[in-house]
Task: inverse folding
């Protein structure tokens, strides 16, 4: 039987059916005047000339696109009576100024007539308490009347949009969850949605998954006599949590289906438009436990032409994300955006000014920040960027924050810097549109099932609507990425549900951090990957539970003990000093006997098979790491969480360890860098390469970048400055050198002559 979490990911993909619009929009959020999204100013005709001045200023700075918005309550205040004057005015102004328009649609701000017509459509929390909307979060889309009205509004928007030459496309759903933009603080531990219509939809989902009530009863340990008795999980019990996994899997699945329905509605009316959506926080930093209902990035990406993310490195007080954190977010987004032939991704919201949540005000956003953030996204192959926002927020708890310019209209150096990024992209449209990331040889497995160990009992702490899960699941993924970041090695995050022979074949090294719960099908694919010559590194308690939460008889479970060449002898939750591994082998280049690698949480003693060897031990002398071979491939089993430990306790030894894994697996390093805290990334655009170099340090350095390229003669052009670029050929690589100031960005087009 297919795993619950897997079922959300195999909806027939829509990628490839959209337009091949070879346009990379770089724009600003501007909805007409100073109203903050999703609000709109009244009487757009009276403000037309004022808005025209804003639009001309946006154009003059170099931007090529406006991202405006429409909320359902304003757009359809009376059923079937559409008020789209704001949208129409901005389309007309954009046409006159030769700008493109992307429309952000907000359905969470629903008109009151929907509730009057369908009084049984309120969102309902797990304690059966209904939510009366206060501008948000609207009404439950699982109600058939609400869904019909929802799609009718999208269709009406599309019928108007298609008549404009300025219209480029859509963002159908900003930061998708079951409910958005409303936190019912009067409900302890809310969770959505438990209304009768969502429960009926869940039962239909279960029928499709299990096929019969008997099969469901066996999986959930129940004795239901009819489907009408089936309820979503609400409790944490000692017996089983298969029902909880199904419930959260269904939530992610239904969000994908809802996005697809909206996609089809606008595509039928405006087939040449580009259709997108974007996440609030990608799966790297979010959790399926989220009470408002969390989507899955890979699922959502397959429903639209481009799926992307919001990107706020300085969101509010004490938040200032470092280069490795920012790069991890962007590479995670790149991974689901380009997976399986995908076109790429859009940055739906890129922070334009200092952030604030009430009294929590961030550090200033600088000109260097704007350049660094935008070019870092483009270096990963972003196909659209939208700065949030033109004006700062003029109301709400974000009041005064996030603007590229001042609220009185004063143009800032930040806005000029952002406009310059847009100008460069506009002047090189084909180059940036066709650019794709190189094929990575290293994969880190992203596994949302890891959050489900213990079911609800394991639910991580959550800090409100702008909070983050800060658990070991995230730390494990980030730890691997941070350790490998200095090598500039292309790295993909690969979803556990998408493991297949074809998907795994390009990778010489696969790293599986925090692998406690695995689908049986994924374990089988990993086994074949190693058998066929791959190198696999896994951490403690590999395959402890399957996708239903059932414990393995032998750990590593799911048949992986044979692959890893060992089995678990004992396991204990320990303090960090007892989780450390002392290396005693010369099997990894650069990691000599005596090197200590910090671990975290578990000390899992391993018993090796005859063909395997112990390469590291815990302080008590038990085997803590085992190397083995299987078929044509090789494995390394770690009895603790080295990856998560590096995130919380970064040590040079651990960084050297991950660098050594690249050599152990035979990974090619396409970029060599020296000169300081330098990051270098590249994209391939036809026979050309786009090289992006970032100085993350606080001092000027002489950057020296060597990029592996086919033997040929090359010419280089600096896309940001009118400066010559000297290149040389050395050891089969193209060499670029330049003095870079602190926080500087260098973008080079490398073309074959």
Result:
């Amino acid at each position: 039987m297919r795993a619950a979490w897997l079922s959300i990911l195999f909806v027939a993909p829509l990628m490839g059916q959209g337009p091949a619009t070879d346009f990379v929009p770089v724009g600003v959020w501007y909805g007409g005047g100073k109203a903050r999204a999703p609000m709109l100013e009244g009487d757009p005709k009276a403000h037309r000339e004022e808005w025209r001045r804003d639009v001309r200023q946006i154009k003059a700075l170099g931007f090529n696109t406006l991202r405006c918005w429409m909320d359902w309550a304003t757009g359809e205040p009376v059923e079937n009576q559409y008020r789209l004057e704001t949208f129409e005015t901005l389309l007309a102004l954009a046409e006159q100024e030769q700008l493109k328009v992307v429309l952000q649609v907000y359905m969470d701000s629903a008109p009151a007539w929907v509730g009057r017509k369908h009084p049984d459509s309120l969102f309902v929390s797990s304690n059966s308490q209904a939510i009366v909307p206060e501008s948000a979060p609207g009404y439950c889309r699982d109600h058939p009347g609400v869904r019909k009205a929802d799609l009718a509004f999208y269709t009406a928007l599309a019928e108007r949009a298609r008549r404009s030459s300025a219209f480029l496309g859509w963002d159908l759903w900003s930061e998708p969850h079951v409910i958005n933009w409303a936190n019912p603080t009067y409900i302890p531990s809310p969770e959505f949605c438990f209304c009768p219509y969502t429960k009926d939809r869940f039962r239909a989902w279960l029928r499709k998954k299990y096929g019969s009530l008997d099969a469901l009863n066996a999986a959930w340990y129940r004795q239901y006599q009819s489907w009408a008795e089936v309820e979503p999980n609400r409790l944490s019990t000692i017996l089983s949590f298969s029902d909880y996994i199904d419930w959260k899997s269904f939530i992610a699945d239904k969000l994908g289906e809802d996005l697809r329905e909206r996609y089809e509605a606008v595509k039928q009316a405006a087939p040449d438009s580009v259709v997108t959506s974007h996440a609030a926080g990608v799966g790297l930093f979010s959790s399926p436990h989220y009470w408002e209902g969390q989507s899955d990035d890979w699922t959502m990406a397959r429903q639209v032409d481009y799926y992307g993310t919001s990107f706020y490195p300085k969101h509010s007080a004490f938040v200032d994300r470092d280069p490795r954190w920012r790069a991890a977010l962007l590479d995670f987004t790149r991974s689901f955006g380009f997976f399986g032939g995908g076109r790429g991704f859009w940055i739906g919201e890129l922070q334009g000014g200092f952030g604030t949540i009430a009294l929590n005000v961030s550090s200033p956003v600088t000109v260097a920040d704007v350049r660094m953030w935008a070019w870092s996204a483009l270096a990963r192959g972003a196909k659209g960027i939208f700065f949030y926002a033109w004006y700062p927020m003029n109301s709400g708890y974000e009041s005064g924050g996030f603007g590229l310019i001042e609220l009185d209209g004063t143009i800032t150096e930040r806005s000029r810097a952002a406009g310059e990024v847009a100008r460069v992209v506009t002047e090189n449209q084909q180059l940036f549109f066709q650019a794709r990331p190189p094929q990575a040889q290293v994969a880190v497995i992203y596994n949302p099932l890891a959050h489900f160990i213990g079911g609800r009992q394991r639910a991580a702490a959550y800090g409100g609507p702008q909070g983050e899960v800060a658990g070991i699941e995230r730390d494990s993924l980030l730890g691997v990425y941070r350790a490998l970041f200095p090598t500039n090695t292309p790295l993909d995050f690969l979803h556990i549900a998408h493991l297949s022979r074809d998907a795994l074949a390009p990778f010489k090294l696969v790293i599986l951090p925090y692998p406690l719960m695995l689908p049986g099908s994924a374990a089988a694919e990993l086994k074949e990957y190693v058998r066929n010559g791959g190198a696999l590194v896994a951490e403690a308690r590999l395959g402890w539970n399957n996708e239903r939460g059932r414990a393995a008889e032998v750990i590593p479970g799911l048949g992986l003990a044979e692959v890893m060449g060992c089995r678990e002898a004992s396991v204990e939750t320990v303090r960090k000093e007892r989780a450390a591994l002392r290396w005693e082998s010369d099997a990894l280049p650069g990691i000599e006997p005596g090197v200590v690698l910090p671990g975290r949480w578990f000390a899992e003693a391993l018993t090796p098979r005859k063909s395997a060897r112990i390469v590291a031990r815990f302080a008590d002398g038990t085997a803590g790491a085992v190397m083995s071979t299987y078929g044509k491939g090789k494995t390394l089993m770690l009895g603790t969480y080295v990856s998560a430990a590096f995130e919380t306790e970064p040590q040079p030894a651990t960084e050297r360890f991950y660098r050594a894994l690249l050599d152990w697996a035979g990974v090619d390093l396409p970029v060599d860098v020296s000169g300081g805290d330098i990051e270098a990334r590249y994209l391939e655009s036809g026979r050309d390469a786009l090289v992006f170099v970032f100085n993350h340090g606080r001092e000027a350095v002489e950057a020296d970048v060597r990029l592996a390229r086919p033997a040929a003669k090359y010419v280089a052009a600096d896309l940001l400055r009118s400066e010559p670029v000297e290149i040389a050929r050395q050891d089969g690589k193209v060499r670029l050198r330049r003095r870079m100031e602190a926080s500087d960005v260098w973008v080079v087009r490398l073309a074959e002559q």
